[in-house]
Every structure is written in C-alpha cells, then in structure tokens.
Amino acid sequence: MGSTLNVYGRAVLGTVKKPKPGPVPQRTLTRTVTIDPDAVARFNTVTELPVNNDVPAPYLHTLGFGPSLELMTAPDFPVPVLGMVHVYNRFTQHAKVPMGAEVTLQISVSRPRARDAGSELDVIVHGSVDGKAVFEDVSTYFAKKTKLPEADEPAPARRLDLPEGSAVATWTFPAGLGERYARVSGDYNVIHLNSLIAKAFGFPRTIAHGMYTASKAFAQSGVSAEAFVWDVQFAKPIFLPGRANVVVDRTDGVRVGVVRPKDGAPHLVSLVRDA
What residue stretches are annotated with the MaoC-like domain (predicted)? Predict the structure, then answer.
C-alpha cells in the first residue's frame, strides 16, 4: 500500500500546484496481479461479502485503482485527481475469477466529455485471465468547473431510479471506517481519513468511501451468476460516523437504494442484472 500512499502524496501536491491545461493523455498501462486469497478474505470481512472460492466484483474493482491513480497523477494530466468526483460505475463480469488466478489488467483513461458544469471522463480497466476477458470496469469521474480541450459531445446522462418500498435494514458507518476500508482496498484518499482535510474540501467531517457502500450494496444483492452487469450511481456522501437506510427491489434485476434516514435522499443506487 505504500506506493498508493506515495501517489496520493502527489495528488495532494497537485491540488496546490495547478496542472497545466491540455488534452487528456491517451495511454494504456498493463499490470499483472495474482489474486491473494487472504487479501480477498480481509476485504470481504470489512465489506460483509461472503467468503468463498470466487473473487467478488468489488474486490476486482480495487485492482485497477493504483494504476489509475498513476495515470491521473502524471505531470501531463490536466485535472487534479482530488478535485474529481466518482459519480458512476459500471462493472461487467464475463466469467468468474478464481482465487489464486493471475489477472492481466489494461488501464486507460477515455477522452473527456463536456458537461454544462464541467467535464467528465472514464477510467477503463480490462481484466483477463489466460488471455480470456473476464471483466470490464468503467469508473466515471466528474470535474466541476473544468473545461478540457478536445472534449467530445456529452452522452445522455445515466440515471438509476431509487427502488420503492420500506427499508429492509439500517447500516451503521463508524468513525474509523475510512481507515479500515483503505487498508483492504488501497484507497487512501484523505477525505475519508482526515477530518481537517475533508473540511478543506467542503465536508463537515470525513466521508465514507463510495465503493465501500457500493460493496455492501453488492453483498445485499446476493449475486451468484457467472456473468452480470453491476451499475452504481453515487449521490450524497455519508458522513462518518453515520447511518443509512437500505431499500431493495428484486423486480427487474436487484436494485439496492442506500438513503438518508431523515428524508430518503439517495446516497447510492446499485443495480445488478444479467449480462
């Protein structure tokens, strides 16, 4: 995890020294990772995923995190990574990944797309085992008040509807959760770990990792299929410590809504459906 911390050190410096404007570099990183069953078990314990012989999608998502940070903290990347917000994620699994598998990753960043209030782009991770594609992970980030050159026309915004119905559970998010999830995921973004820095970014205190909440929603879905598509739309942050209600609808796929108890405002919507 030390290298990830070093990358975040560069990210913090990037918020002080404004990157030079320019196009988003089009390059691809290739990495090979051997799945460590102990690391998966630790991740599953924190996120309350079942421990079995297959690697869950939320853990596979973490494999591309470090390399994606390398791309987005490069000197010629035109946006400070800590100023980008993860707004949507689509994970497509083509085949199950067994424990101990050697996974080859190809990580790249898309061309930017223009939005009225800024720009968005995708971090794309392709995963393969023995030359066979096993997953594709697309993380969409939004950069507010940032206009990038050579931006494509905006695609229609994706929206996931909240499921209807009463809450089936209330989740508790303790104060030390950010550090616990950082240790098993490698995501040491300081807004999840340090309240003073979180306040500097406009939050009253630290916030839960969006992908931690998404992982719990995935666990709530009870996915057993070999191939599926998992969409996540992120909304309001969850402040630590905090609580959230959970609503589930299994009418068309499995839709999980994580909402604010006092008014039902969405924190996150997750949808898992057959590929």
Answer: 179-252
